[in-house]
Amino acid sequence: MSDFLCWRYDHYIHPHIQAQPMDDGDVFRRSLLDSGVTPEQRQDVEAVLRLYACQGFLLGVRTGSGLAGLL
Questions:
Q1: Residue 50, in any domain of the structure
Q2: 56 CB contacts (<8 Å, ≥6 apart)?
């Protein structure tokens, strides 16, 4: 991932995701994740989340750019 995407994730995407309200099911699954993995596995999960969040952001940018001519 580029430095820009890493910065964007740390300063925009991750805080936005963390600010979203969670229902009871989300809280339960988050609790399972926090208590059921080792610190090494936790780092792996965070790396995967970072990758997919950044790829989703790029997909949104590309899709918006592609639709600009239609709007």
A1: yes
A2: none
Residue range(s) defining the domain that contains residue 41: 1-16+33-71
How many structural domains are present in the chain?
1
How far is 22 from 58, CA to CA, in rounded Å? 25
Residue 52 to residue 57: CA distance in whole angstroms: 8
Indicate the pTM of the whole model: 0.74
2 to each of 17, 26, 35, 47, 50, how far by Cα in Å?
20, 30, 31, 14, 12
26 inside domain = no
pLDDT in tens, 2-24: 888 889 999 999 999 999 999 99
